[in-house]
Write a structure and sequence with these properties.
Blueprint lengths: L1 H38 L1 H21 L7 E7 L4 H12 L3 E6 L3 H10 L4 E5 L3 H8 L1 E9 L3 H22 L8 E9 L7 H31 L1 H6 L5 H29 L9 H25 L3 H18 L12 H7 L3 H14 L8 H26 L1
Parallel strand pairs: 1-2, 1-3, 4-5
Antiparallel strand pairs: 3-4
Helix pairs in contact: 3-6, 7-9, 7-10, 7-11, 7-13, 9-10, 10-13, 10-14, 13-14
Length: 390
């Protein structure tokens, strides 16, 4: 009996020792994994950098609320009441009055340039109409190429006008009535497709050109066939460019498909020159392809190329290009970053040509910037490629 009891004690002790050993092994593996993670800067960046960036962007930068929108005022009355109304609008956080203008032609020019989001017109005899007829009108004109922003701005303006009307009616038996007359430019029906199609075009081209080009070239590196291609009679630059040509053609076909579906299925008209629209689309495709080449040269694995393409370009194109969130609402640092996102300029071009029906004289700045980006990406790619081969 004593032997059996002692044997049980030995077994329990062995089991406890095994448990301790397993726990030590487990802790050793955990410690090893910690060392592995802490030594990998890319993993640390994803673990800690991504949450911080996402919170900052979504918490402080990205908001559907429209603020500090640039507007112009045409005050034809130039009386006490009109000046009070202008001061009240200027004091609002929603509007930033660029200038006071004196003709309808100046308003049209400002809208075509994309310099303003809204215009307020106070007609002559504003104060006299309030005093003698107890009612007056103001006209609110908004750029409805982005219907969500236009609706928000007109609602803010109408609320300010109504508040101003309430202040005027204090202590009066016969109340004054101010009637805002709203006019939506470029998109009278306020269809959301007017803002969705340019953004979708930018995203599709960015995904197809940048991501696919970067992965296809890096795949050659991983499989070891890139060295075979580089020692062929063709120049290395021609080898890489030849891999991007199929994506140029496929992306152009995608543009045709998107435009056809937009016109025939979604009812979105092409108000500008179709050949100009296709030409600037090809320029944007080349910009994205050159960026994909740069990413492919700088990376050595498909995983890294995919991560840089998605996190570095696709998300900024979605969030910082003005597609989903107004750029003017963002903090100044993010507004600066949005200027280096190619999709920002392409969105402006598509809205100007396709929706507003404008010509080359109104988009030369955006075209010049995209051309400069393309040349920069190709120059850096060429320099990096030569250094890598050396």
């Amino acid at each position: 009996m004593k032997c059996f009891t002692s044997w049980q004690g030995v077994q329990k002790e062995k089991n406890s020792i095994k448990k301790v050993m397993r726990m030590k092994q487990f802790l050793t593996f955990v410690q090893k994994e910690f060392y592995h993670v802490l030594r990998d800067k890319k993993t640390l960046l994803i673990l800690f950098g991504m949450p911080v960036v996402q919170i900052l962007i979504f918490g402080f930068a990205l908001s559907n609320e429209v603020k500090n929108s640039k507007i112009v005022v045409m005050d034809q009355a130039k009386d006490i009441s009109s000046q009070k109304l202008i001061n009240k609008i200027e004091a609002s956080k929603y509007f930033d009055i660029e200038e006071s203008i004196h003709s309808q032609g100046q308003i049209d020019a400002a809208f075509k340039k994309g310099a303003i989001k809204m215009a307020l017109i106070i007609p002559a005899g504003f104060y006299q109409n309030l005093v003698h007829e107890h009612k007056a009108q103001v006209q609110v004109i908004a750029d409805a190429s982005d219907p969500n922003i236009a609706t928000a701005l007109t609602n803010y303006a109408n609320a300010i006008v109504q508040d101003f009307q309430t202040e005027l009616n204090t202590g009066f038996e016969m109340p004054y009535t101010i009637i805002p007359e709203t006019r939506m430019l470029y998109n009278p029906q306020q269809k959301s497709v007017y803002s969705m199609v340019p953004g979708v075009m930018a995203l599709v081209l960015m995904l197809l050109c940048v991501l696919m080009t970067a992965i296809s070239i890096v795949r050659e590196k991983e499989t070891g066939t890139m060295e075979v291609l580089l020692v062929s009679p063709f120049k290395p630059s021609l080898v890489i460019l030849s891999k991007t040509v199929p994506y140029l053609l496929l992306s152009f076909i995608d543009i045709i498909i998107i435009l056809m579906m937009s016109v025939w299925l979604l009812g979105l008209p092409i108000n500008g020159n179709i050949f100009l629209l296709l030409a600037v689309s090809v320029l944007y495709i080349i910009t994205c392809l050159s960026l994909g080449i740069l990413i492919s040269i700088k990376t050595t694995t498909q995983q890294a190329a995919m991560m840089i393409s998605l996190m570095g370009m696709l998300l900024p194109s979605l969030m910082l290009s003005g597609f989903m969130f107004p750029i003017e609402n963002m903090p100044v640092p993010l507004q600066v970053i949005s200027n280096i996102v190619p999709a920002t300029w392409f969105n402006n071009i598509i809205k100007a040509v396709m929706i507003k029906g404008l010509g080359p004289s109104f988009i030369w700045k955006e075209v010049l910037i995209l051309t400069g980006m393309t040349l920069f990406f190709l120059f850096v790619s060429l320099k990096s490629f030569k250094i890598r081969l050396a």
